[in-house]
């Protein structure tokens, strides 16, 4: 697992209070990991802080799964 | 219209001298002080370095990690104390008509720590507003009853009363009114506060409202004593289940007491100082007695607002003498704030519970830490000093007054 992937997963485990094993690439924040709309906003903000990036709202809307978050951040950091 | 009778059928308490009703009573009857040096933050530069914090309260015993992050402490306390009260009431939540169950909750401030944390974070940043999306819903004072209703599905009236230190007495009186007017069968009423924070201590210190007896925190809260020097900040919650009498009787509920009446008034005088003639305080007790259809001579005990401030304590006792006249020396007067400190918006609720427990146990908890007689105080009054006094209590009154000049008074009686 990449460094980015493990840091993303750690944030999700912390913020959503879910088990690490549930945080798989295809898991949806809302459908699988119990996030509500505010949780999702908070996750995006944590990613921005952790990786020192800006995720515009229109792109944040496309980050709905763990894998999408990791891909977005990996691209943003390259 | 015939008003319905309202009774108390459940109690919950989370206080600096006990984390359950049973522990709270043990503390009250034994004259235990809940005051100690502050553990929540570094007080080195603060004038007052002590408060009545909760002891050994671990939110993870009650909530999972994710819930804890979304709940300010004042909301955590609300959920924990209301759960105890609901369990104590024996209400069957599966058969209850939840549209006729309300939650009316008092909070003087709300999520002060949440506000403080978010604003400090902003101040440390580069000016970009990165507020947490839970900031507002965690902080707002009405989120406590909101969370209680979400947890249990109570769909009746739901809101927070805000009248500073009278907040939860206002909540109890509103609950009394909704039930006796027939709008609800049951209301979870009470209050919570969690203001032992940098902003809370700093703010009250700036007003010269707090005791600064740093050399002896456990004796700092000393209502009616000549050497009192301000109140001691406390935190926690109290919850009462108010229920329509026939509804309670039909299910064979344990009935602690009847809510006989409530009174409200305003000083209309000063933002924080009590009226020197105590006009509003006289009127609130008179209003309460009138509402209950009671004569002054029927009152056995009064749990005073008695915060341990130089002006307020004397003004309240003078008002009691005026309202109760020749009967005043027969009343067991006390201030349980000598033990719990001042829980602000939760004070009315935990002191109502103290009044009800005094009836239940025929024992009036003491006003502790008394050392020196104040010659401004009528010596004929029984202030229940230093030691609990056995007393058959059939009628118990509780006073609370808030910054802004808000006065609230509630009276309980044994069910006849």
Structural descriptors:
heterodimer, A: about 80 residues, mainly alpha, 4 helices, B: about 425 residues, alpha/beta, Peroxisomal Thiolase, Chain A, domain 1, 2 domains, ten-stranded mixed beta sheet, two-stranded antiparallel ribbon, about 35% helix, globular, lipid metabolism (chain A)
Number of helical elements of chain A: 4
> Per CATH, which architecture of the largest domain in chain B?
3-Layer(aba) Sandwich
CATH superfamily of the largest domain in chain B: Thiolase/Chalcone synthase
CATH topology tier name of the largest domain in chain B? Peroxisomal Thiolase, Chain A, domain 1
Instruction: Characterize the main sheet of chain A.
Output: none
Arithmetic mean pLDDT of chain A: 94
Helix content of chain B: 25-40%
Calculate Rg of chain B over CA atoms: 20 Å
* Strand content range of chain A: under 5%
Q: Over the alpha carbons, how many angstroms does the gyration radius of chain A reach?
A: 11 Å
* Mean pLDDT across every amino acid position of chain B: 97
Distance between the termini of chain A: 17 Å
Q: Fraction of residues of chain A in helices?
A: 55-70%
Number of strands of chain B: 14
Structural domain tally of chain B: 2
Q: What spatial order of strands do you see in the largest sheet of chain B? A: 5-4-6-7-1-8-14-13-9-10
* β-sheet strand percentage of chain B: 15-25%
Let me know the number of strands of chain A.
0
- CATH class descriptor of the largest domain in chain B: Alpha Beta
Number of separate helices of chain B: 13
Catalytic activity (chain B): a fatty acyl-[ACP] + malonyl-[ACP] + H(+) = a 3-oxoacyl-[ACP] + holo-[ACP] + CO2; (9Z)-hexadecenoyl-[ACP] + malonyl-[ACP] + H(+) = 3-oxo-(11Z)-octadecenoyl-[ACP] + holo-[ACP] + CO2
Pfam family, one (chain B): Ketoacyl-synt_C
Family (chain B): Belongs to the thiolase-like superfamily. Beta-ketoacyl-ACP synthases family.
Protein name (chain B): 3-oxoacyl-[acyl-carrier-protein] synthase 2
């Amino acid at each position: 697992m990449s460094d980015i992937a493990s840091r993303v997963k750690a944030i999700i485990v912390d913020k959503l209070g879910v088990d690490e094993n549930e945080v798989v690439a295809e898991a949806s924040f809302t459908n699988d990991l119990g996030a509500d709309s505010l949780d999702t906003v908070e996750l995006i903000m944590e990613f921005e802080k952790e990786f020192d990036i800006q995720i515009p709202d229109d792109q944040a809307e496309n980050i709905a799964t763990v894998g999408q978050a990791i891909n977005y951040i990996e691209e943003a950091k390259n | 219209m015939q008003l319905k009778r309202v009774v108390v059928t459940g109690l919950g308490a989370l206080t600096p001298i006990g984390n359950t009703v049973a522990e709270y009573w043990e503390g009250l009857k034994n004259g235990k002080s809940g005051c100690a040096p502050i553990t929540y933050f570094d007080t080195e530069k603060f004038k007052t370095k002590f408060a009545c914090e909760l002891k050994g309260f671990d939110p993870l015993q009650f909530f999972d990690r994710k819930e804890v992050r979304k709940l300010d402490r004042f909301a955590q306390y609300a959920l924990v104390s209301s759960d105890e009260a609901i369990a104590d009431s024996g209400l069957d939540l599966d058969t209850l008509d939840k549209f006729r169950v309300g939650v009316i909750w008092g909070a003087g401030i709300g999520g002060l720590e949440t506000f403080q944390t978010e604003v400090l974070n902003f101040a440390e940043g580069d000016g970009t507003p990165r507020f947490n999306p839970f900031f507002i819903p965690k902080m707002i004072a009405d989120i406590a009853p909101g969370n209680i209703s979400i947890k249990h599905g109570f769909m009746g009236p739901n809101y927070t009363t805000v009248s500073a230190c009278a907040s939860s007495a206002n909540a109890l009186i509103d609950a009394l009114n909704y039930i006796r007017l027939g709008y609800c069968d049951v209301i979870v009423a009470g209050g919570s506060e969690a203001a032992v924070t940098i902003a809370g201590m700093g703010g009250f210190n700036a007003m010269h409202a707090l005791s600064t007896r740093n050399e002896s925190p456990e004796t700092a809260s000393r209502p009616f004593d000549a050497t009192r020097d301000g109140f001691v900040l406390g935190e926690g919650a109290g919850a009462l289940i108010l229920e329509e009498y026939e509804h309670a009787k039909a299910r064979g509920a344990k009935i602690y007491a009847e809510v006989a009446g409530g009174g409200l008034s305003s000083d209309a005088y000063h933002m924080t100082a009590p009226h020197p003639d105590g006009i509003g305080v006289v009127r609130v007790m008179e209003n309460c007695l009138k509402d209950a259809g009671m004569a002054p001579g029927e009152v056995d005990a009064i749990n005073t607002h008695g915060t341990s401030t130089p002006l307020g304590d004397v003004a309240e006792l003078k008002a009691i003498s005026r309202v109760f006249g020749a009967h005043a020396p027969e009343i067991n007067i006390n201030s349980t704030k000598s033990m719990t400190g001042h829980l602000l918006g939760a004070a009315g609720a935990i002191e109502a519970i103290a009044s009800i427990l005094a009836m239940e146990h025929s024992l009036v908890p003491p006003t502790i830490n008394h050392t020196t007689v104040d010659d401004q105080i009528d010596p004929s009054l029984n202030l229940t000093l230093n030691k609990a006094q056995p007393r058959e209590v059939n009628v118990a009154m509780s006073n609370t007054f808030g910054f802004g000049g808000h006065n609230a008074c509630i009276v309980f009686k044994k069910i006849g």
